[in-house]
Amino acid sequence: MRSRVRKVAHLLERIGLAMAGAASGLFVAAHVGSTITVLTSQNFIVIMMIGGAIAFYLGIDTPPLAFHGPNGEPPRGGSGGKIDSTEFLSAVGTFLATLTAFASVGVIVSRENPHIFWTIMIMLGWVVGVTMQIIAGAIARTRT
């Protein structure tokens, strides 16, 4: 019974993360689409929402890499200096994606019209962030 409850709770958590990613994609798409007329379409909004949902579902809460010494035991004094690329990609990707979503919401709510450079930077930050999350999630799931 306890295992089933844990699995349902984990599934609800993952669905919630996907919904947060989709909402973030919606905010970035609304801002970018309102500034760059070529990107003002329902298809663009849907693609951004799907990308955000996949990225947040896969890229957040990735299982950490297990570090082992030469005899199978954990190394003394920490990780032995190794960097887990999956954790790094996930952390930086999540930061970039949420930062750009936060900036987009700020622009929308304050009804500002930033220079096109900043809109392009927000779009690039979003794309790089969700790409990093998706790659991190794919790596983490292939090594387990």
Low-confidence stretches: none
Mean pLDDT: 87
Range of strand content: under 5%
Which secondary-structure class do the elements indicate?
mainly alpha
* End-to-end separation: 25 Å
Largest sheet: none
Choose one word for the global shape: globular
Approximately how much helix is present in the residues? over 70%
Give the ordered list of helices and strands.
HHHH
- SS element count, helices: 4
Radius of gyration: 18 Å
The total beta strand count reads: 0
What report would you give on this structure?
With 144 residues, this protein is mostly helical. Helices cover 74% and strands 0% of the residues. It has four helices and no strands. Helix 1 crosses helix 3 (85-110). The mean pLDDT is 87.
Secondary structure layout:
Blueprint: H1 2-35, H2 42-59, H3 85-110, H4 116-143
Helix pairs in contact: 1-2, 1-3, 1-4, 2-4, 3-4
Give the structure's gist in a few sentences:
By secondary structure, the protein is an all-alpha fold.
Give short descriptive properties of this protein.
144 residues, globular, single chain, mainly alpha
